[in-house]
Amino acid sequence: MIRMPEGINGERFFQKHWAQALPEFVESVTVFSEHKDGKHRYLLANNLPTLLWLGQVGTLEFHVWHSRAQLEPEAAGQRPITRARWQRWSPRSSTTPTTWCSISIRTYTPQGSDGAEPELNKRGFAVGKRVAFWLRALLKQMSLERS
Asked: Taking the chain, what is the end-to-end CA distance rounded to the nearest angstrom?
């Protein structure tokens, strides 16, 4: 999470773990970190009260994992990722492997050297739209269309 609890003119910082007490509606999951060789608790933003609370504590940006905290298939008919199968891949983790992805298509002019904010523009939007339709056709051809 990128947090700015004192507003946009205050300190901006990246926070991975939450050490303070959590409200009862906030769920978390423990994940093993190869990098730190230990288990760490991560928040699950899986309900509206949690999203509202994260906004109240100044979370302006989320950097999310594309993994599941529950061992369930994405859709009916897929081979389930059982705990035994996943533990062969990652014996110390409580999450499943990524089963989906998110693609971000930027439709603005990048930030200039003067530090100005990015600007939306019609040409960028038109190109972004063309890329989105091309990508959708490609994913459909590969049987990876959103279900």
From this structure: 29
- Local structure of residue 95 (DSSP, 8 states): S
Phi first, then psi: give them for residue 3, nearest 5 degrees.
Answer: -115, 145
User: What residues contact 123, with CB distance under 8 A and at least 6 apart?
Assistant: none
Tens digits of residue pLDDT in 59-77: 988 887 766 665 455 444 5
Single pTM value for the model: 0.53
The tens digit of pLDDT for each residue in 21-53 reads 999 999 888 877 777 777 888 888 888 999 999
Contacts of 2 (CB under 8 A, 6+ apart): 12, 13, 14, 15, 59, 60, 61, 63
- Tell me the one-letter amino acid at 56: Q
Which of 2-16, 20-34, 94-108, 133-147 has the weakest average pLDDT?
94-108
